[in-house]
Amino acid sequence: MTIREHIKKILREEISSTPTKYTYLTMNPFSKGITKRYYFNDIVAVDDPKPVPGKTKIEGADGDFIFDTHTLKFDLGKKNVFISQDEFNKRYPGHHKVNKPEVVGINSKNIKLALQKAFPENWKSDSNIFSAGLRGIYTIGEKIDDPNEDWSVMNFFDTKKEIHSLIYLRYHEDETKMNIVDWMADVFKNDDEFVQLLVDRQWQSIKNGILNEKMATEAILNKLGGGNVVLYPFGSKMDRFGGVDFTINGVNYQIKPLSRYKKEPNGQYMISTYGMQDYTKKPTLDKIVFYSPKECLIFNNENYDVPNNYTAVFNEEPEII
Hints:
The chain is an alpha+beta fold and 321 residues long. A six-stranded mixed β-sheet has the order 11-12-13-16-17-20, with helices on one face. The protein has a four-stranded mixed β-sheet with strand order 4-1-5-6. The protein has a four-stranded antiparallel β-sheet with strand order 2-3-8-7. It is globular, with a radius of gyration of 21 Å.
């Protein structure tokens, strides 16, 4: 089975419980009370030419591992596997993520260069309002039935880790000696089936973000009793570079999903989210909103740490809606 077929299986099929080797897309820590785990997500069974009795191999963008099979817990419905952090640390003490896509040059800068090289006729330079990017190909408008929205879903490839991991798996399969930008440009231009898989996966993230931002905006407006709202179009510099999803009464907001949160005895707020980064480097952003249908937490864009892109630690009390 080729990596391309594995990728299709990630997105479209169920996996088997019997293999001794899997690939994965992301590796994430989990901590709740005394429960501490590492999760390997979007696992796919692959051929293992040299199986080891009682062992299972887990390979992907953040490192390759081999574990005692009995220490792993599979959730085939969710397509993930986890191991306790204690067991992991016994096997791999002091482990640091490898980030193989970054090592070979699959990063934001090179993806943008590859997109521009693959589709020069669709690449538009920046303006006062919009950042540079692709238009008129694999558009958001096609997804939302709006012919006037020509910003490409492919423009988001540069920031999503799972997309980088999928591209890396394909690169690993090709065993090419091409320059990484030239190779990505060739794949983007000529492998329609693979690109469609990337676009479909990226669109799920965009669609979830659109819905989350809409509900968060409504929650804030209800709290304020109304207000003047400015929404920024896809590809705007305020969104892409400023980190601003919308503005209400002159205050700039960034919206993140809220999985859960906990107030620690020292007063810190531990936030579980997705796609988090240090927004203090974006001076135009005033507040960060973590939204779920049950709760909405609003923090000032200051005085926090980001251990990883799934966690934020705030040292102040939020406004809770």
